[in-house]
Each structure stands twice: as C-alpha cells, then as structure tokens.
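Hi everyone, sorry if this is the wrong subforum. Our group has a chain we'd like a structural model of before ordering constructs, and none of us has done structure prediction before. Sequence below.
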Amino acid sequence: MITIELFGVPRMRAERDSVVVEADSLGEAFRALGVACPALDPTVVQEGRLRSHYLVAVNGRQLTADPATPLREGDVVVLLSAEAGG
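Answer:
Right subforum, don't worry. Here is the predicted structure as tokens:
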C-alpha cells in the first residue's frame, strides 16, 4: 500500500488529509487518487498525470511528477501544490 498525503488545495478539495492506494508507479497512484477522490480529477490529476502546477515528494527525498517513477510497498507520496501562491 502507498500513502498519498494531501496538502493545501488538494486537501481542501478532497476533504481529507491522506489516501491509501495500491500502486507500482506514480501514474498508477495518480489514477487511484482520482478514483478515490473524484474532486481531484481533472483539477489535480488527469489520466494518470499530475496537472502542471503540482509536484510530489516520494519518501521526502525525490521531487517529481513523472508517472513512470516506481513505487514500493510502504512508500509515502506527499502531494504539494503551488496553486495557492505564496
């Protein structure tokens, strides 16, 4: 299982702080996130990809949006948004 932690706009839209999914890659995780949280599809995720103003941190080490990024059991994916500004 992969835990996707939501922050900022994705958290507000999904009305939850995390989602647990089964996935072997970020693309699979993004698809599963869209199914689990329909409010995020297509504004945050669309067809297994993140929209352009989002990134994820995989296990706090790797910032990416590449759907081909492999995931392993127990990984934590943190979804970050630049949508709110700063």
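For your construct planning: Strands lie at 2-6, 18-21, 45-46, 49-50, 54-58, 62-64, 76-81. The two ends are 33 Å apart (CA to CA).
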